[in-house]
Every structure is written in C-alpha cells, then in structure tokens.
Specification:
658 residues, Dna Ligase, domain 1, seven-stranded mixed beta sheet
Length: 658
C-alpha cells in the first residue's frame, strides 16, 4: 500500500516538467486535464518527426491559454531498443506518458514497476520527457520530471535523437541539481556534442510576470525610480518600484520590475495588508500614461489587470477607511523585570519578551534533533517603559504624535518620528540596569559577536505579522556597541514604516512595547528562509508535505530583504523530490566584520548554495518545527555554518486576509 501511494503521488507529475519552475510562474499541474483538441482533427497518435511548427502545434497542448505563461508543450518517448526511435506524442490525446506506453502496447508494465523502469534505472528502455516552446525565449527546450534519475549517457542520447528529428534547435532545461550535474558532465564524455542548457537564470531574466500576492486594490498610481530616506509613500497609492525597496509603509498595491522572492519582507507585508503584489517586466514604461490617476490593480495566479478605477469604487474604498474599528492594544506584562535566558522562555512568554524571542525559547525547550538555537537572553518590556519614564519621554512622545500636523502631513510625520527615535537613542540608562546587561554579556558571551534583535508585542499577531518593521543590529562586539544597539532597537518602535503599518491596522501605538533579544551571532556559510508549504500552490494536496527553501551565501539579511533573487527549491516529502526553482544571482555575500557589524565580500561562484543533503536537513527540521507549533505553517529563518544547522526565527506564516 505504501509503495502504491508513493507511485500515485509521483505519477501525477509524469506528464512532463512544463512550467516546472516557480521563477516563471506557477507550475502547471499534470493532474489538471489540459485543454483538449478535437480528436478528429488530431487523429495521429504520434509522429516520428516534427518537421515544422505546424507539426508541433498539432500535437501540443497548452496550459493557461492566452496568459503570460501559456506554454505549448508535447511529450516525447525515446525507445532505446529500436535504435532510439522518437515518438512525439499527441499530447491532446494522452495525459501521461504511461497512458501512451500502455495504449500503444510499447509497454505492458504498470504501477511501481513501470515507474521504476522508466524514471529511476540507468539502463532503462524508454527515455521520456517534454518539449516546450518558451515564448519569452523564442525557442524550444526539452526537459524531464525533476525526480527523473537521468544520467549523462541518457541525456546525451535524448539530445542526439531529438536533434535529428526536430525541425529546429532545442536546449535542455534541467529541473534538479542532479540534472544540472548530468548536463555539466556531458563535456567529459563527448567532445563532439555540447548540449545547450537553458538555465533558470535565463528564464528568470526573460519572464514577464510573477504573481507574489493574489489580491486587488485601488489607489493612485505612482512610479518611483528608488526609495530614499526622504521618500514619503501614502497609503492610498499603488506604486511601481523600479528598484526593489527594503522597507515600506502601508500602501494600496506593489509592482516591482525585478523578480522577487515570495518570502521577502515586502511580500510578507503585502500578505499582512492584503494588497496586490506582482513583478511586471517594464511596468514603468507600460503604465506611464496612468501615473497620477486612480487605478485598480488585480493580481491573479497567471495574469493581472491594471486599469483606471471606477470613481464609485474609489469613494467606497475611502469610506471603509473612515469607518475605523476600535484601536487594538496587544497584551503586555509590564511587571516582569528579569533578564531571562532564551532556554528558559516558552511561547506564552510573548507577553513579556515578544513573539520572536518567546517562539525561539519554545524551540529551544523542544530540543529538536539536528538543529541548534543560538544561545541568548532577553530584556523584557518592563525596561523600555522604565527607560522612557526615566528620560521624561512618555509625555514628550505623546505630544509629538498628537500634533494636528503630525496626523495630516505624512512628510512632517516622518520627520517627527525621526526626532522621537533620536530622543530615545540619546537617553540615559539606569546604572544598575546597564551594569546588569554588561555583566551578563561578559560572563556568558565574552568574545562573541552578538545580534541585538527586536522582539515586540506588535508582531506575529492575528492579521498583523509585523515582519521587517523593526530594527536588528548585527555582530555587536563592544560594550558601547551593545548599549547603543539596545537603544536603537527600542527606538525602532517609532520607525516610520512601523508606525504607518500599525496606524493602518488600527493599533494603539502607546500599547506597543519592544523586548530586546541579545543572541550569539552565527557567521553563516549560507542562510535563508524555509516555509512549510508550497507558496506557489498552497491549495494543492501536495503542498501540505512540501517545504519551500531559499538561500544565499553568507548572512541571510539579503534573503529577507529580497534585494536579489535567492536560490530557491521545493522539497516534496511524499516523493522525496527536490525541484530547483532558481539559482542565486549574488556574486557577493555579507559576513562578519572583525570590528563589528557586517561587510560585503566576493563570494564563490560556479556552485549551488544548497546541496541535496542540506535541503533534506532543512526540510526535515522545518516540518518538526511545524509540529512544535501545533501544525501551524511556519516561516523559518535558518543559518548553516561549519556543518551545523541553526534556527534563528520561527513565526506563523503570514497569509492574505479576505
């Protein structure tokens, strides 16, 4: 029964690897019935040659017809027992390779036997795959299911057979690290045949659209070349960003002109705010004529619309904002005053230290085999309030926030928030508190680079994630740096983006308290994010056993900022498949600076960030972490260094709200 179940899961993918990378849009599910052509018009069950585009089109099926990722594709079968005869399968008549093999009596095998003999054995009789036309590349590529254990010999045979029988040149698109390696080894066994490879980078740079958060919104269209400290963005704007921002206040919609990770902080905020977010190639030029006008943006799985908004819809949207609910005040324990080690915290302690710290404490308590939680301790909310009172800042901040101009002038508000942060950063510590911090840091972490991290009661709440709103200071080395970093983290409660996000949500700003997590930093070989579902197809049955992982070399700061495409893979638990989506674009990485902070250095090129063994380790850890939090999907930040896997954050996965 177990073997049969695993076969059924796998065989649903054997129609080919068309649209197999999330970097070019959602994967076309082979379980979906393709749009059928008329059988009477397509009576040929197969052709042994494709001599024209017309021949290809007669046999090809199309998923997502008329949309950005409409990929005409057909299946092929190569019979090695008949001098590598090629069968170009009428893919309008047959859904899977197995259907064609059985109906033509080429093979009478079924079930697990057919699966193993066709996809796993190096001495197989049949080589099966798919040829697709990629409109953005204006070319054809053949590919295999990512679980196919294709060898370099089989790959070379397939390329030669297709080249002899197809009317134009074809490239090979690998869908796994093993297939990439096989293509690379071709050079070692053949000096006369070099297979052109269609890389994931080629596809990423050529794609025209990527849906990041499915939603619709109405707002005034604005086009920004870049975001600076002086840029003020209004919540009623839909913005086209020509340079991907690191932080954002609430707004009505996001369009970027560079592909992005679904787990960037920007997209997590988009999910929390339930606003549309998409990559659209050349969006600034496409929609220049609409700048300054009210528009409606709708982001769907495989297409979008951006059009002038109906004035009645604009009025209705504005009325919803006016009818604001009562302010939300998140819970906070302001009496607890002990500096507390991470390993002595549990999830319920979020009311004392914030969710980030408390959740890590829960994981430390769980003692999951194969992962390490870097040690640290937390400063509870109590000390932030005492600091404000000691420096006479409570009333001063309240007076600033309640100014009429502060309320109605976004540029002035941004300036005043900067002043509030400056007041906090210039404040004086209670001497006993200062000595307690330094004594503990010296006793427990002498010589260690420390991360001073925000952990507030205004994050990981229902409908409000708070991802990326507050400040973390990396690799603190000296007493002066440590004390300054604590005040920086406290002050970040009044970051412009954080204030605007809370204001849009309807949160009581004076009920927000920051804890501070002081934690040993890990100088990462690689780092990234893992989530315990398929972010590109979360509604599918298979997504519940899928782990999405992205990674970059060095520290993971750039992964969550989403400045460049990270390496991305999907791990399918049921079939133990690893699907490569994209490879990292970075030629530099961040590492610890000996004097404190981080520095940028050149990174090693020519190899993947993730190997298959590490992917499986991260996936296994992620699913165990999900169990700790009662089966709730998790957004996990991981670090890999010196052969050890560290977890530095786990939070509930932000999902769009209806």
């Amino acid at each position: 029964m177990i073997l049969f179940f695993r076969f059924v899961i796998a065989i649903g993918l054997l129609a080919g690897a068309v649209a197999s990378t999330a970097s070019q849009g959602r994967r076309s599910s082979p379980r979906r019935r393709p749009q059928q052509g008329s059988a009477s018009q397509n009576t040929a069950r197969w052709l042994e040659r494709i001599d024209s585009r017309a021949d290809f089109d007669r046999l090809a099926r199309i998923y997502y017809r008329g949309r950005f990722y409409a990929l005409p594709h057909l299946m092929f079968v190569i019979d090695r027992s008949k001098e590598n005869r090629v069968y170009y399968v009428n893919s309008k008549l047959y859904q899977f390779h197995k259907d064609f093999l059985n109906s033509t009596y080429l093979s009478l095998e079924r079930g697990p036997v057919l699966f193993e003999n066709t996809y796993l054995k190096p001495n197989r009789r049949f080589i099966v795959g798919t040829i697709a036309y990629y409109p953005a590349m204006s070319g054809f590529a053949f590919e295999f299911w990512e679980g196919d254990k294709i060898t370099e010999q089989l790959l070379s045979t397939a390329f030669e057979a297709i080249t002899k029988s197809f009317f134009t040149s074809v490239s090979f698109k690998p869908n796994s690290s093993d297939q990439e390696a096989a293509a690379h080894r071709i050079k070692e066994i053949s000096t006369s045949s070099v297979i052109p490879v269609l890389t994931l980078g080629d596809l990423a740079s050529s794609k025209e659209y990527q849906a990041l958060n499915l939603a619709s919104g109405i707002g005034q269209l604005r086009i920004l070349d870049r975001v600076s400290d002086d840029t003020v963005i209004d919540r009623n704007q839909i913005v086209i960003f020509k340079e991907t921002p690191v932080h954002l206040p609430p707004l009505s919609g996001i369009i970027t002109v560079s592909p992005a990770s679904p787990l960037s902080h920007i997209n997590l905020l988009a999910k929390a705010w339930s606003i549309p977010n998409a990559y659209i190639k050349n969006a600034g030029e496409l929609f220049k004529s609409l700048e300054g006008k009210y528009v409606k943006l709708a982001v769907r799985d495989n297409d979008y619309t951006l059009e002038p908004a109906d004035p009645r819809e604009v009025t209705e949207r504005n009325m919803k904002w006016i009818k604001r609910a009562d302010l939300v005040t998140p819970p906070a324990d302001l009496e607890y005053a002990n500096l507390t080690d991470l390993y002595n915290q549990r999830a319920l302690d979020a009311r004392r230290f914030g969710a980030k710290s408390a959740n890590l404490g829960e994981l430390a308590h769980a003692r999951i085999q194969g992962i390490t939680i870097p040690p640290g301790f937390s400063i509870p909310f109590y000390y932030y309030r005492e600091f404000l009172r000691r420096n006479n800042l409570e009333d001063k901040i309240a007076d600033a926030v309640e100014e009429e101009r502060f309320v109605h002038d976004p540029a002035y508000r941004k300036s005043r928030l900067a002043s509030i942060r400056s007041w906090i950063e210039r404040g004086r510590f209670d001497e006993a508190f200062k000595q307690a911090i330094l004594t503990k840091a010296h006793h427990d972490y002498e010589g260690k680079g420390l991360f001073v991290r925000s952990s507030t009661n205004a994050e990981d709440l229902k409908d409000f994630s708070g991802a990326g709103l507050y400040t973390t200071v990396p690799n603190v080395r000296t007493d002066e740096q440590l004390l300054s970093a604590i005040k920086t983290v406290w002050a970040s409660v009044w970051n412009y983006e954080a204030y605007e996000a809370r204001e849009s949500f309807g949160m009581n700003h004076f009920g927000v308290f920051p804890g501070v997590l002081i934690q040993v930093g890990i100088n990462a070989d690689s780092a990234g994010v893992a989530i315990t579902t398929d972010p590109f197809n979360s509604s599918s049955k298979e997504s519940s056993g899928t782990v999405y992982i992205n990674a970059k070399r060095g520290l993971g700061i750039r992964v969550v900022e989403g400045q460049k495409i990270a390496e991305q893979v999907l791990y399918r638990t049921a079939s133990k498949r690893i699907q490569v989506l994209t490879r990292s674009e970075d030629d530099t990485m961040l590492t610890f600076d000996e004097a404190g902070g981080v520095k940028e250095v050149r990174s090693e090129q020519g190899r993947a960030v993730l190997n298959d063994q590490l992917v499986r380790r991260i996936a296994a850890a992620a699913l165990k972490i999900k169990q700790v939090f009662r089966g709730m999907d998790q957004d996990i930040e991981w670090v890999y260094a010196g052969g050890a896997l560290y977890i530095v954050q786990s939070r509930p996965l932000a999902k769009s709200q209806p």
